[in-house]
């Protein structure tokens, strides 16, 4: 689809009128999270709950229009209801950001997991760049090494990294039931927000949109079947304590949370916030992992670049388990960058053994150990 540009798609969509304002869909601010990729074109229409029926036809019309564009293999338009309390749609709504505190959950916590998934765990961090994605994948692989059936959901809208870390460039196919069939890599069933949108788009989503995308990835992916349910779904959350994390707790039953931190003071104070958020929303905090705890120099000495032991101390203070420490090891980064995780390349290496131990503790806490 070499010639199809975002502008051309927006222009085409603008020829479809918004039943409410009479403006074209693009001008009315109804085209959200537009993806134009060689594989697919798609976007979301987000309207207040009571207007959803009025927009069903618009959705099908938009999807049919996109499907007719030259070179488009798949077109998908998703109609979603705005989260109550979110700003109404329109240009001003697009500019506004909801303060995190406005989203404090009053709603009851969810009581169901996605279909055919036995346990859901989330991996969070107070801030970005602490190795949350790298470690959540390594933990998922560690659980797989325990003989469990494991899924990995990369929900980090600020930097979806699973496709790169796993060398995966095939987005999920859609099954007969319109659910996404997740591709498999390293024995994990994988889905990523990076398959649905281009990362630049994802980053500017308002909270409700990001949450909606996450809900879709969680519930509209065929993670398991009746015969072969998934034992554990590991969700790599965006960093921080925002809307996405809060909404998730209302959408799915979460069996536990793991928090990743580096040993620096700054990272630790943010990690404390993350632990508090999970605890406040009734999620069992499985524990804290300290990443980049030391670096092994060629002479065998251990250099504690960021200090060491801070996360262990924090876990003690907060009375949550300390799950273990992981060294700064350039091979971990190289593995992520080249799509061959270190724990797969060197399953018996010292780093992999650490992740196996962390995964074993988690599996035991979940009651899934083999
Ligand atoms: P986050 O998800 O917290 O933003 P990432 O997992 O994307 O962090 O990690 C940020 C960068 O640091 C990546 O390049 C990753 O490969 C690298 N990295 C993470 N943990 C380690 C580690 N223990 N040793 C070496 N590099 C690491």
Describe the model.
The protein is an alpha/beta fold and 370 residues long. The chain has 2 domains: 97 residues, GMP Synthetase, Chain A, domain 3 (2-Layer Sandwich), CATH 3.30.300.130; 250 residues, 3-Layer(aba) Sandwich (Rossmann fold). It is built from 14 helices and 14 strands. The strands form 3 sheets. Strands 4, 5, 8, 9, 10, 11, 12, 13 and 14 form a 9-stranded mixed beta sheet that branches. It has a 3-stranded mixed beta sheet with strand order 1-2-3, with helices on one face. A two-stranded antiparallel ribbon has the order 6-7. Helix 4 packs across helix 14, helix 8 runs parallel beside helix 9 and helix 10 packs parallel to helix 11. Bound molecules: adenosine-5'-diphosphate. The site of adenosine-5'-diphosphate (ADP) has 20 residues, from helix 4, strand 12, strand 14 and helix 12.
Give a brief rundown of this model:
This protein is α/β, with parallel strands linked by helices and 370 residues long. 36% of the residues lie in helices and 22% in strands.
Tell me what the CATH architecture of the largest domain is: 3-Layer(aba) Sandwich
- Topology, number of strands: 14
Strand percentage? 15-25%
Low-confidence regions: 83-107
Mean pLDDT: 84
Structural class: alpha/beta
Number of helices: 14
The biggest sheet, with number of strands, parallel, antiparallel or mixed sense and barrel status, is:
9 strands, mixed
CATH fold field value of the largest domain: Rossmann fold
CATH superfamily of the largest domain: P-loop containing nucleotide triphosphate hydrolases
* Secondary-structure element pattern, one letter each: HEEHEHEHEHEEEEHHHEHEHEEHEHHH
Portion of residues within helices: 25-40%
Ligand inventory reads: adenosine-5'-diphosphate
Q: Can you tell me the number of structural domains? A: 2
CA gyration radius, whole angstroms: 21 Å
Task: Name the CATH class of the largest domain.
Answer: Alpha Beta
Shape assignment: elongated
What is the straight-line distance between the termini? Answer: 47 Å
